[in-house]
Predict the structure.
Amino acid sequence: MKRLMLILPLIALAGCASNVALKDASDATRAMGTLTLTWLHSNTMEVTLDGKRYVGEWDSERCFNVECRGDYSNVTKVHRRHIREGLAVLKTKEGDRMDCEWVSHLPDVKGTCRTQDGRTFRLEEAKPTK
C-alpha cells in the first residue's frame, strides 16, 4: 500500500498528452499536433501546419456551467469536474499566429484554431490510424 501511495503522486506530476488534429471544412486533416498537459512545466501546445511550426503556451479553467461544457454537457456529475475550457496563442519563428480555443474531457478535445490569415480549423483529438 505504501508503494502505491508513492507512485500515484509521481503519475500525477508526470502529466499527460493528447494528440490533436486540425481539420478543415471538408473534414480533411490538415495538421497534427500535441497538446501536452503537465504539472511541473508550463503547459505547451505545438502544431505544424503548411510546414510551419506553431508553438505556444495554453491556459485552461474548469467549466462550471452547461454553456461552457458544450458537447460534454450530458456527462455524469462525477465527470464534470474534469471538463476544462482552454485557450492558446501559438506563434511561428516568423511571427505567424494561430489562436485556439477548446473544451476538453481528456483525452477528448473539441475546439477551433484560427490563423491570422482567416483560415479556421476544427481542433479535436487525433484518432490513431489503423
Summary: The longest strand covers residues 52-62. The first helix runs from residue 2 to 14.
